[in-house]
Amino acid sequence: MSVMADQSRTGRSRTRLTATVTDLEVVEQRAFLIAVATSKDAIPETETSLNELALLADTAGSNPVDEELVRRDRFDPATLIGKGKVQELVSLTRAQDIDVVIFDNELSPAQQRNLQQLFQCDVVDRVALILDIFAQHATSKEGMLQVELAQSRYRLPRLRGRGTEMSRLGGGIGTRGPGETQLETDRRRILDRIAKLERELKHLAQSRDTRTKARRKSRLPVVSLVGYTNAGKSSMFNLITNAGVLVEDRLFATLDSTIRRVEMEGGSPLLISDTVGFVRNLPHQLVEAFRSTLEEVNQADLLLHIIDAADPDPDRQIAAVHSVLREIGAADIPELLVINKTDIADPVAVHRLQALHPGAVATSAVTGSGIQDLAAAITARLADTTGDIELVVPYERGDVVALLHEIGRVSSTEHTDAGTRVKAQVPSTELHRFAEFLGT
Fold first, then answer.
1. Using CA atoms, how far apart are residues 426 and 219, in angstroms rounded to an integer?
2. With the C-alpha atoms ordered 351, 357, 362, 365, is the resulting torsion angle positive or negative?
3. C-alpha to C-alpha distances, 433 to 6, 97, 173, 399, 403, nearest whole angstrom
4. Cβ(110)–Cβ(245) under 8 Å?
């Protein structure tokens, strides 16, 4: 596990090594997990989140050997859990030879420093853990740049000192001083790196925008798979497209978007994309860094929201996905819920989800059950999301024809005495923009 901690005993990948004369044994990093609930009502949700933290730790390559759910009326500003509780857990972690303590709650830079001094080992929070997982799994150039940008933004406020009283001193009269401190050097280096990463990502985003426009010119509808991490998106993507995308029973196995052309049985060709999975409390730094990639979701005509029916709490997963969709501005895109993993889910849970979400399709990406129903539902929903229109646009209104090409799929154009006759498919939500040219 390569957890991010900017104080002592840090490193990109730290495993414990036990050396003998004859062999070298590599031992997994031992992790102790802590979550804090500030009310009795919050305990069930905190327990669920703590269970997920264990999966995240395992995905990062650690061995979560123990955990603690701490109940407090309010967070302690210095240590989050209070010094007395810290001392109790310090004894426990030392007895278990713990290498890293992972908090489910986000830690302030001061809390992280204080806790690390007390535990005398790496102390990180959920945000750092997720950032580390992303760093391990990113494979494309853009993905690696996005993760590094998120990590840099996370590290910046965690440099020791506040920086205001250590501002750089000039060399002129009245400004002479000791010069730049090491803290300022580190801070400036990170800020310069952030600026460079942002420039590189902007350039890559422009290239993606060009590809997106080219796909739109192909007049093919775009369907994007979204869902909670490990809900089975990549398995469903492979079932539909035979793409052979990596599938692992681990969180965040997929980070880079993959797009394939596919012909659904009984329907028209379409483009379908697989995206990074979402999670509760997805770090804001990651949402910002991956915004350019996630914007591909905004270009979709239909979202396939994959739900893990076997999860103990699918409703919270659905809410987490909707939260991220709102944050990236994709909340209004038409959505088709796909209740996945019916081969292992409790049938009662599947029926409950179907009752709560009329129109949802029950499937299994493993057995292929329900795939025909899904294909039919995709075709029907795509037909609902667009409208066929025929316009006669005056020649002086070239802007209208340009808009049709930009947001719709133009199938034919004909020049007549009255103007340009255009047949096109336009998103239903955009039909009102062309009302004055209809039926001419």
1. 11
2. negative
3. 53, 66, 64, 12, 10
4. no
pLDDT at 276: 74
| 274 neighbors 231 (Cβ within 8 angstroms) | no
pLDDT tens by residue, 41-62: 999 989 988 998 998 899 888 9
Within a 10 A sphere around the Cβ of 419, how many other Cβ atoms? 19
Return d(Cα 150, Cα 287) in angstroms, integer: 9
Cα 156–chain centre separation? 21
CA atoms of 272 and 297, how far apart (whole Å): 11
pLDDT digits (tens, 9 = 90+) for 323-340: 888 888 888 889 999 999
Domains of the chain (ranges, CATH numbers) = 16-134 (3.40.50.11060), 218-384 (3.40.50.300), 386-437 (3.30.70)
Q: Which residues have C-beta within 8 Å of that of residue 387, sequence separation ≥ 6?
A: 425, 426, 427, 428, 431
- Each as own residue / partner, the long-range contacts of residues 80-89 (CB below 8 Å, 24 or more positions apart, any chain) are 80/36, 80/105, 80/107, 80/111, 80/115, 81/34, 81/36, 83/118, 86/115, 86/118, 86/119, 87/118, 89/32, 89/34, 89/119
Name the 3-class secondary structure at 222: strand
Token pair of 52, please? 């997920």
DSSP-derived pairing of the beta strands 386-393 and 420-427: antiparallel
CA dihedral sign of residues 161, 162, 163, 164? negative
Report pLDDT digits (tens) over 69-93.
999 999 999 999 999 999 999 999 9
